[in-house]
């Protein structure tokens, strides 16, 4: 996908930037970057047919609102994540898991389960407490012969881990198509044939019931998806949740209790919470 | 000892729905920030405000750790909510999107005051009135 960068510059910083941000939004640019010295507001548009006309319209709008100048140019493709990649090293998680980036070597012990990942532009590097705590909770669960659903699969790290722990079938869904691509690549790298699909619900994964559900998303989505997840699980299924900040934890517990789920274990780290519930 | 600041990045991102699409990804990547980690936290914190675009200021330190502050929603979003409209006028010179009362304008101005570089309420109201006009919203006399 190629992008066109659009940047509005100003003589003086606007007293309120929102009309300019709003103009970008009207043309589909939800993300903007702002600079105070010298004052500018930048965004990017996907280079599709008709983009040039859209940009002309947007330029006119920004100038009318008081921008001094508006420039546009193709965005030079770069590996944005290159820099922090340099600091992503193999790390041990729980007792048996080791997460290793594709570009690093690691000397494994016989019992180790090595997750080789290229996180790309998807969530889930194993470097984050939410993923780490999920993996730790998963280690305590018997996966042998189980059907596992990974809702919000991101890079696919949890799906791959579930397969390593002996799951009979693993399927993952994510709302971001780019995540599905990354997840498929990551699974192939482990010689696994896992089912990943773009979608927004556990139902996109096909027929239940699932024995284990993994969901490392955000709490609002967890709460919203709760009823469909519980409907699609076998009685007594394990539901691992993560991606919850402490402030939102009580809401998640209440929502789970309303669905007759029982809290089995919870882990807290660095302001994040992960937990295992037992489904009715 | 306080850590040295190596950069400050100001972004406007949709609440609860941040993605690494440009310009967010390139800006954070170049600064050495683990962008997916940042976005995950941003999305989790801001999900209740879904529908708003939120200004966020990220301070990056020399060890690539970072801190961020989420500001009040955009003034234009607050105006839209105050008068119950979905969007502003595409052509504010000719089209009208709605009318905002002085009281509601004052509420928006007060909410945004911290982000507007002024502690004068009248001044803040004048700025917000300008933003309202730019989206075809008339201020009640």
How is the secondary structure organized here?
The complex is a heterodimer of chains A (280) and B (141).
Chain A: E1 3-9, H1 18-26, E2 32-35, E3 40-46, H2 51-65, E4 69-74, H3 82-85, E5 91-93, E6 97-101, E7 113-117, H4 129-139, E8 147-151, H5 157-164, E9 169-174, H6 177-189, E10 195-198, E11 210-216, H7 219-231, E12 233-245, H8 249-258, E13 262-269, E14 272-278
Parallel strand pairs in A: 6-7, 8-9, 8-11, 9-10, 11-12
Antiparallel strand pairs in A: 1-3, 1-4, 2-3, 5-6, 12-14, 13-14
Helix pairs in contact in A: 1-2, 4-5, 7-8
Chain B: E1 5-14, H1 24-30, H2 35-46, E2 53-61, E3 66-70, H3 75-83, E4 98-100, H4 102-112, H5 121-134, E5 137-139
Parallel strand pairs in B: 4-5
Antiparallel strand pairs in B: 1-2, 2-3
Q: Biggest interface pair, residues each? A: A-B, 49 and 56 residues
Topology of chain A as a string of helices (H) and strands (E): EHEEHEHEEEHEHEHEEHEHEE
Rg over C-alpha atoms of chain A, rounded to the nearest angstrom: 22 Å
| Residue fraction in strands of chain A | 25-35%
Question: What would you note in describing this structure?
Answer:
The complex is a heterodimer of chains A (280) and B (141). With 280 residues, chain A is α/β, with parallel strands linked by helices. Chain A has 8 helices and 14 strands. Chain A has helices at residues 18-26, 51-65, 82-85, 129-139, 157-164, 177-189, 219-231, 249-258; strands at 3-9, 32-35, 40-46, 69-74, 91-93, 97-101, 113-117, 147-151, 169-174, 195-198, 210-216, 233-245, 262-269, 272-278. In chain A, the strands form 3 sheets. Chain A has a 7-stranded mixed β-sheet with strand order 10-9-8-11-12-14-13, sandwiched between helices. Chain A has a 4-stranded antiparallel β-sheet with strand order 2-3-1-4, covered by helices on one side. In chain A, strands 5-6-7 form a 3-stranded mixed β-sheet. The longest helix of chain A is centred in the first third of the chain and has 15 residues, at 51-65. Chain A starts with a strand and ends with a strand. In chain B, the strands form 2 sheets. A 3-stranded antiparallel β-sheet of chain B has the order 1-2-3, covered by helices on one side. In chain B, strands 4-5 form a two-stranded parallel ribbon. In chain B, helix 3 (75-83) packs antiparallel against helix 4 and helix 4 (102-112) crosses helix 5. The mean pLDDT of chain B is 90. Chains A and B meet through helix 1, strand 2, strand 3, helix 3 and helix 7 of A and strand 1, helix 1, helix 2, helix 3 and helix 5 of B.
């Amino acid at each position: 996908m190629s992008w066109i960068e659009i940047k509005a510059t100003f003589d003086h910083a606007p007293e309120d930037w929102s009309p300019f941000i709003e103009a970008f939004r009207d043309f589909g640019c939800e993300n903007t970057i702002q600079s105070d010295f010298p004052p500018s507001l930048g965004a990017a548009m996907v280079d599709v047919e008709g983009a040039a006309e859209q940009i002309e319209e947007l330029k006119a709008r920004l100038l009318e609102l008081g921008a001094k100048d508006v420039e546009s140019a193709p965005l030079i493709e770069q590996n944005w994540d290159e820099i922090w990649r340099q600091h992503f090293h193999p790390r041990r998680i729980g007792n048996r898991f080791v997460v290793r980036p594709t570009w690093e070597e690691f000397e494994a012990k016989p019992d180790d389960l090595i997750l080789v990942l290229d996180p790309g532009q998807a969530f889930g590097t194993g470097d984050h407490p939410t993923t780490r705590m999920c993996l730790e909770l998963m280690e305590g669960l018997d996966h042998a012969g189980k059907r596992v659903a990974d809702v919000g699969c991101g890079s696919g790290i949890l799906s791959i881990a579930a397969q390593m722990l002996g799951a009979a079938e693993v399927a993952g869904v994510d709302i971001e198509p780019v995540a599905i691509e990354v997840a498929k690549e990551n699974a192939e790298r482990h010689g696994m044939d896992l089912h990943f699909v773009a979608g927004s619900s556990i139902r996109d994964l096909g027929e239940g019931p699932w024995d284990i559900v993994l969901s490392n998303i955000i709490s609002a989505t967890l709460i919203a998806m709760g009823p469909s997840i519980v409907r699609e699980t076998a009685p007594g299924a394990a539901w691992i949740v993560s991606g919850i900040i402490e402030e939102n934890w009580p809401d998640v517990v209440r929502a789970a209790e309303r669905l007759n789920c029982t809290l089995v274990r919870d882990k807290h780290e660095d302001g994040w919470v992960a937990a295992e519930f037992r489904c009715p | 000892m306080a850590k040295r600041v190596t950069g400050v990045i100001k972004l406007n991102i949709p609440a609860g729905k941040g993605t690494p699409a440009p310009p967010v990804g390139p800006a954070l990547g170049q600064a050495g920030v683990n962008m997916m980690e940042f976005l995950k936290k941003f999305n989790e914190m801001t999900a209740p405000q879904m529908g708003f675009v939120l200004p966020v200021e990220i301070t990056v330190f020399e060890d690539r750790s970072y801190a961020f502050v989420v500001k009040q929603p955009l003034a234009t979003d607050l105006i839209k909510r105050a008068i119950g409209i979905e969007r502003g006028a595409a052509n504010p010179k000719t089209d009208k999107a709605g009318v905002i009362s002085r009281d509601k304008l004052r509420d928006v101005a007060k909410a945004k005051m911290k982000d507007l570089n002024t502690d004068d309420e009248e001044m803040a109201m004048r700025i917000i009135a300008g933003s309202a006009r730019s989206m075809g919203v008339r201020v009640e006399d």
